[in-house]
Amino acid sequence: MKWWWISGLILTIALLYVNDTWYGNAATFWVPISWMISILILVKMTYPKRKWWSAFVAVFLVGATIVLSIPTYSVAAAQQELSTVYGNVTYTESVRTEGDEWNPFISNVAYVFKTEAGQKLLFIPDSGKTFEI
Predict the structure, then answer these.
(1) Among 84, 113, 116, 120, which has the highest number of CB atoms less than 10 A from its own CB?
(2) For every residue of 14-49, which 3-state class applies, written as one string?
(3) Is residue 126 a contact partner of residue 105, using CB atoms and an 8 Å limit?
(4) From CA 42, how far away is CA 107, in angstroms rounded?
(5) Which pLDDT tens digit goes with each residue over 30-72?
(6) Is residue 68 left, alpha or beta, with left meaning phi > 0 and alpha meaning psi from -120 to 50?
């Protein structure tokens, strides 16, 4: 196994870990992971012919998709944002939502928080909108 396959595997595991712990599975990291797998397969097929600029373009594309896949608010940032309005809130779970459009960089996951008064809040991590459930 070559070093680029190992680095791709390490990056994939890191992205999945960050998505689970920081973003409550709201980040759309499947986009850069699928791009990375496609690029690694392409590198394997064109190994002797590749140039340095093609590696630069590949790293730039994967990096750009990672940046675009990160939602605006993490779970901690959403909790801090809601605590200014609703007081003490606690994160309970992430739920799937359905939207009208298909965009691979917009998350279809929302955070659910519970206030001290027992009120449940739905927080959209890409826009920062809050809905009472």
Answers:
(1) 113
(2) HHHHHHHHCCCCCCCCHHHHHHHHHHHHHHHHCHHH
(3) no
(4) 28
(5) 999 998 888 888 777 776 666 677 778 888 989 999 999 999 9
(6) alpha
